[in-house]
Design a protein that fits this description.
Layout lengths: L2 H9 L13 E9 L5 E5 L2 E5 L7 E9 L3 E11 L12 H4 L9 H18 L6 E3 L9 E7 L10 E8 L5 E6 L6 E3 L9 H16 L13 E8 L6 E7 L7 H8 L5 E8 L11 E6 L4 E5 L2 E5 L9 H15 L6 E5 L5 H7 L4 E6 L2 H13 L5 E5 L2 H12 L5 E4 L8 H10 L3 E6 L2 H13 L2 E9 L9 E8 L3
Parallel strand pairs: 3-5, 6-7, 7-22, 12-13, 17-18, 17-20, 18-19, 20-21
Antiparallel strand pairs: 1-2, 1-4, 2-3, 4-5, 8-9, 8-11, 9-10, 11-12, 13-14, 15-16, 21-23, 22-23
Helix pairs in contact: 3-11, 4-5, 9-10
The structure holds S-adenosyl-L-homocysteine.
The site of S-adenosyl-L-homocysteine has 19 residues, from helix 7, strand 18 and helix 9.
Length: 484
């Protein structure tokens, strides 16, 4: 074939002798991992994303969907396993898709996460002064500290939600929705969840079978039981069960209470009324049938009251480590004025309030602020004040009205990062230290660039793994203001 034709074909993602069509099989070596946890391999310069593979694997895959310069392949078989590959412990890992990294050893997962964050800070954020303390990469004065991994990366989630349905024989099943569909794959023991989940689901199913209580059917909008929410206080051992029902009343509720009370730690049983045709799991109305309506837990020395609708971190053990890191970065002596922006139920605010003169928290969801205030009172902390509103509005308004500077500002925004108006106000207020807690290193990198351009320097970075076997990673960053 002449050279020119070869070049044209190459541009279109095809190459002489390598014209793969849908469902064709091919072999490739996984050279890298995407941010979403798919393995990346090449065939004649064409890039493939293949889920369930691990860097270093040689695999056989089939072509699923192809674009101009890249395509998606489906793993058929691992021809030569990578050293980083482990046998997934969960039998339904591939169907579920919740754990993108089940086939990767935990040690390798930590490396993957740390590298992803480091690379984003360097490439997207152009943060030039980083030095990887453990590996010795880079020579700047911004310390990139080793990731904080979990001692045991299994059964770390304190919250689970299971949908109810029926199998083809009409038997009641619970499990998870397959891929993007609403077909239930029966599976009751997610290895990231607590062991009690299986016991509770067993009790619920036999209770429903015995009293003819039907699971909800999406197509017909009939049937009663939609989901169950199960939560456990890791510190206290207290358990909460909340059934979500398509009706106003749960029949035989007293009988269910008797059965569930047999589970060790059972402290709160309720149901949530959700009669809408919706994908939203919880309804707004909660009816308590046993216990005080909440369970208690603690992170470090701070107590929390958790109701069925409260937000609460799902991995409390690692949350404590992450917030300890944020607190350490804040270098509080007891005399500081601190802002905690995007404060949720005030978890970080209350942590900081243990060592600051005054803490102001800002959060957009009113219900979360109610919880934050209640938690403040519960812990006898009178040096915290919470505001409902957008961080990018509350902070500048406050600063214009009071002119009060802050010593430290902590931010913990959602994935999309901080609004520029928020960053702009931080730069104007000029706190000595900014602690940025992030769950998305790409937007973190973008925001750090803004702060560095505004006169701040990155001093410390530390990742913390809160979600083992998934691609998610939390990061805490300390920035200090350069001398004015
Ligand atoms: N630090 C909190 C969780 C932070 S998650 C905790 O540990 O509990 C991010 C929070 O930011 C969410 O609670 C979300 O409701 C809130 N949020 C989103 N956009 C916001 C905005 N523009 N201003 C203030 N809060 C916002």
């Amino acid at each position: 074939m002449c050279k020119i034709l070869e070049v044209i074909l190459k541009k279109e993602g095809k190459k002489f002798g390598m014209d793969i069509k849908k469902n064709d099989r091919f072999r490739t070596t996984i050279e890298d991992m995407s941010d979403q946890g798919a393995g990346i391999g090449k065939t004649d310069g064409y890039t493939w994303f293949i889920k369930d593979t691990v860097v270093g694997d040689v695999v056989e895959a089939s072509a699923m969907k192809m674009k101009k310069s890249y395509g998606y392949g489906r793993l058929i078989k691992v021809v030569e396993p990578s050293k980083a590959r482990v046998e997934p412990r969960c039998p339904v890992a591939r169907q579920c898709g919740g754990c993108q990294l089940q086939a990767m050893s935990y040690e390798e997962q930590l490396k993957f996460k740390e590298n992803k964050v480091y690379n984003n800070l360097v490439r997207i954020g152009k943060i030039e002064n980083l030095r990887r303390v453990e590996k010795g990469d880079g020579n700047g004065d911004g310390e990139f500290l080793p990731i904080i991994g979990m001692e045991n990366p299994w059964r770390y989630r304190n919250k689970a939600q299971f949908p109810f349905g029926t199998d083809k024989d009409g038997k009641i099943v619970t499990g998870f929705f397959a891929g993007r569909t609403h077909a239930i794959i029966p599976h009751e023991d997610c290895l990231l969840g607590v062991e009690e989940n299986g016991e509770i689901l067993g009790i619920l199913k036999s209770f429903m079978e015995q009293f003819g209580i039907r699971p909800y059917e999406e197509e017909t909008h009939r049937g009663l039981v939609r989901h169950v929410l199960i939560r456990k206080g890791f510190y206290t051992g207290e358990l909460m069960v909340c059934l979500v029902i398509n009706g106003r009343k749960l029949p035989k509720a007293e009988e269910l209470v008797e059965r569930l009370k047999a589970v060790k730690g059972m402290a709160s049983i309720s149901y949530s009324v959700n009669t809408e045709r919706t994908n939203v799991i919880m309804g707004e109305e909660i009816v308590h049938v046993y216990g005080p309506g909440f369970i208690m837990d603690r992170i470090g020395d701070v107590k929390y009251r958790i109701s069925p609708l409260s937000f609460y971190q799902v991995n409390p053990v690692q949350t404590e480590k992450l917030y300890e890191t944020a607190l350490e970065f804040a270098e509080l002596t007891g005399d500081e004025v601190v802002w905690d922006l995007y404060c949720g139920i005030g978890t970080i605010s209350l942590f900081l309030a243990q060592r600051a003169r005054k803490v102001y928290g800002v959060e957009i969801i009113p219900q979360a602020i109610e919880d934050a205030r209640e938690n403040g009172a519960l812990n006898g902390m009178d040096n915290v004040e919470f505001f409902v509103g957008k961080a990018e509005e509350v902070l500048p308004q406050w600063y214009e009205r009071n002119g009060e500077r802050a010593d430290v500002i902590v931010v913990d925004p959602p994935r999309k990062g901080c609004d520029e108006r928020c960053l702009e106000t931080i730069v104007r207020m000029g706190p000595k230290r900014v602690v940025y807690v992030s769950c998305d290193s790409a937007t973190l990198a973008r925001d750090l660039r803004y702060l560095c351009d505004g006169g701040y320097e990155v001093r410390k970075v530390r990742c913390c793994d809160m979600f083992g076997f998934t691609v998610h990673c939390e990061t805490a960053v300390l920035l200090t203001r350069k001398a004015w």
